[in-house]
Amino acid sequence: MTKKEIVKDIADKLDLTQLKTKEIVQKTFDAIVETLVETGRIELRNFGVFEVKQRAARKARNPRTGERVDVPPKNVVTFKPGKKMEERVRQMTNVPLLTSEDEDGLEDEENEDLVETVSSKGGGAD
């Protein structure tokens, strides 16, 4: 779902204009980001907790070239869902599998043996 779809859905349900709803949604997102930047944490009761944490430096491998690379530490946003969300998500079916490739497009060395084993057996996704 996109922000535009969220705006339309809320506007329809609350009988508001999409323009006003878009402004409210954007201000909400801006407040979340600003709070994270200022305090490193925002707790939204019955929804979840966003936190800024530092991911440690690590060794990784570029899956395209096989080259080993040093990935420097970086700040990342984590999200821990609230209990109600967690329960509803657990009941979902047909959810895509999580892969070992992270958002940098690199594979952690800890997962490298598994990736190489699956690849050599022809079991990897193409």
> What's the total count of β strands?
6
Mean pLDDT: 85
> What about the largest sheet?
3 strands, antiparallel
**From the alpha-carbon coordinates, what is the Rg to the nearest angstrom?**
20 Å
Derived from helix and strand composition plus strand pairing, the structural class reads alpha+beta
| Molecular shape | extended
Note poorly predicted spans: 111-126
Q: How many domains, in number, for the residues?
A: 2
The CATH class of the largest domain is: Few Secondary Structures
Distance between the termini: 26 Å
Helix percentage: 40-55%
What does the model show?
Helices cover 43% and strands 24% of the residues. The longest helix has 22 residues, at 18-39. Helix 1 (3-14) crosses helix 2 (18-39). The protein is extended, with a radius of gyration of 20 Å. The model is unreliable at 111-126 (pLDDT under 50). It has helices spanning 3-14, 18-39, 83-90, 109-120, and strands at 41-44, 48-55, 58-61, 68-71, 74-81, 107-108.
Short description:
With 126 residues, the chain is of the alpha+beta class. It is built from four helices and six strands.
